[in-house]
Amino acid sequence: MKSHYPLVIIGAGPAGLAAATTASEHGIETALLDEQPAPGGQIYRNIESMPTQRAELLGSEYQRGEKLVQLMRSSNTHYFSDASVWSLNGQLELGVLHQGRAHLIHADQVIIAGGAQERPVPFPGWTLPGVMNAGAGQILLKQSGLVPSDGVVLAGSGPLLLLLAWQYLNAGVDVKAVLDVQPMSNWLRAAPYLPKALLAHHYITKGLRYKRDLKAAGVLTRHGVKDLRAIGGGHVQAVDYIHRNKLYSIKTPLLLTHFGVIPQTHLSRAASCAHEWNTAQQCWRPVNDVWGATDIKGISVAGDNAGIGGARTAEHNGRLAAFNAIHQMGHISQGERDKKAKKDLRWMKDELLIRPFLDAMFRPPSIMLTHPTDEEILCRCEEVTAGDIRKVLEEGHQTPNAVKFHTRCGMGPCQGRQCADSVAQLIAYETGTNPRDIEPYRVRPPVKPITIGQLAGMEQNSEE
Amino acid sequence: MFKRLEENPTETVMVEIEGTSVRVPAGESVAAVALAHGLIHTRTTTISGKPRAPYCMMGVCFDCLVEIDGKPNRQACMIKVAEGMRIRRQHGAGE
Ligand code: FES
Q1: What ipTM, to 2 d.p.?
Q2: Number of C-alpha atoms within 13 angstroms, CB side, residue A276?
């Protein structure tokens, strides 16, 4: 790894792959850093070494990643696997841990394409072993060919839930139930956007197909589920829920939940980029324009990292960010940039038509987002409950940073990745404010684990 | 909790999970092999000692912290298995 690259791209998912290929094709020396062992991101994870049978289970959308990865591989991109970026600052200096060795590198342009994480939504029992994110289930399937052995309950909202249920069905897994927590009122909220959304019907038809297949297979599907609970001592044994005012319980050793995804913002925050609360998507995201440019010169964001848009949009995002970076470095004029980006800009226009519908449709119920019961754990690391937080709010400590100071909420190893949004939403609800007006946790590097020894080794490196 | 779709992987390594020697496919994460081995919890929490297990599998929850070759606080979902690796549950802070 060199100490300087004109362009550094973080994340080898669809956005990062498209950006790297585009920039390399234009003769820009580009480093693509990714923390996984192989390119593809979460969505196309393990695409290069996927056994055929498993690939078929995953469906045609997954196979799309193959070409993206091939194009990047055959370009001149300097691709680094097992490379995690633990710091980034406004001077475009990056701290990178590559195969156990720490490096400090410098860039003229940085594109952050680190993707999304699952939206953490607390509910009783969500910390029990046997309760996992649906995304985790998908990673186990893609990377290791692991599927639930003794049945599974899927619960939450959003397209991934149906997709995973469908993939499991194809793999012969006993899908005990799909519990959809979307309130019926989402239909009302989403309806006004439907006519425009129909223009981008590819999203909708896929979902309908999964639903039809699940129904034909006799999988129990419940809509408008409330009061989701994972029950158990050492691990989950049952899932309780209320449907149409009746309490139900399903025995299961595994509950996979999904409540949509949110941008991973730790790196852009460490770099002091401005962030805004996005009400439609109920999460923070870096403030960015159509090219993904943030308020910090030279740093842009692309793909789900810039705001949730899904894998296809991420490719276009990545190209737009690359064209702009190439322009910023003086290799093409503004006019050339706009001309090259025409197709991608058109896609983004369509995306703006469909996204409000999806956002409104799959929004988790506000009761789960804003007012967890006192016993619910918000901070998984430090085991801080909603009740603990309410107590310090009553004492007058009413910002996330103050709550953190007084309860240790957000101070554990995950650095607030699992509680930042729920704490902000709880504070907003309890104090009658809008999350928009709440200052999130401050984030300090290292944003990824690195040992003192590795840091010390880095100094030696740069002296050499 | 989990089973493998395909058996006979081409490349394997030997690891030790909680003292038991297990042959596992090369290239997998420590968290995946622990789950496939049936390790229901992989750590206990620092505050209340409650059991936890991998939750996100993508490096953002830190609930998969385990002891690898005697060193605590290793992120099991982000670390690949290696020949001879000793994987143990982490109890509390692990010190
Ligand atoms: S399982 Fe979440 S960080 Fe490893």
Answers
A1: 0.98
A2: 11
Does a structural domain hold residue B7? Answer: no
Quick check: is B1 in a domain?
A: no
Please, which residues bridge with residue B80 across strands?
B29
Query: What would you report as the CA-atom Rg of chain B, rounded to the nearest whole angstrom?
Result: 13
Is the CB of B85 within 6 Å of ligand 1? no
From its phi and psi, is residue A432 left (phi > 0), alpha (psi between -120 and 50) or beta? left
Instruction: Report CB contact under 8 Å: B29, A382.
Output: no
Distances from the Cα of A238 to the Cα of A131, A140, A228, B44, angstroms:
10, 22, 11, 21
**Phi, psi dihedrals of residue A275, rounded to the nearest 5°:** -125, 155
At residue A202, the pLDDT reads 67
Q: What residue in B sits closest to A131 (Cα-Cα)?
A: B55
Regions in chain B scoring below 50 on pLDDT: none
CATH of the domain at B38: 3.10.20.440
Chain segment A18-44, per-residue pLDDT in tens: 999 999 999 999 999 999 999 999 999
Which residues of chain A make contact with B56, given a CB cutoff of 8 A? 117-118, 132-133, 135-136
- Is the CB of B61 within 6 Å of ligand 1? yes
Element (H, E) at A378: strand A377-379
What is the span of the domain harbouring residue B20?
12-91
Sheet with B12-17, strands from edge to edge, namely: B20-25, B12-17, B86-88, B65-68, B71-75
- Per-residue pLDDT tens over the stretch A194-251: 877 776 666 677 788 899 999 999 999 999 999 999 999 999 999 999 999 999 999 9
Let me know the angle formed at the C-alpha of A349 by A7 and A369, rounded to the nearest 5 degrees: 85
Output the six-digit token pair for A8. Answer: 């550094």
Is residue A359 pLDDT above 60, yes or no?
yes
Q: Does B65 touch chain A (CB under 8 A)?
A: yes
Please indicate whether residue B24, judged by its CB atom, sits closer than 6 Å to ligand 1: no
Residues A380-399 pLDDT 10s: 999 999 999 999 999 999 99
Averaged pLDDT, A160-179: 95
Residue A463: band (very low, low, confident or very high) from pLDDT cuts 50, 70, 90: very low
Domain contains B2 = no
Q: Measured from the CA of B75, which atom of ligand 1 is nearest?
A: 4
pLDDT above 70 covers what percent of chain A? Answer: 98
Give the Å distance between the CA of A144 and the centre of ligand 1. Answer: 15
Which domains, from first to last, does chain A contain? 4-117+262-332 (3.50.50.60), 121-257 (3.50.50.60), 371-433 (1.10.10.1100)
Evaluate whether residue B30 is within a structural domain: yes
Provide the domain count of chain B.
1
Find which of A140, A379, A451 to mutate to test the B interface (most B CBs within 10 Å of its CB).
Answer: A140
Give contacts of A 18-77 with B, CB under 8 A.
35, 37, 42, 49, 51, 53-54, 57
Would you say the CB of residue B30 lies under 6 angstroms from ligand 1? no
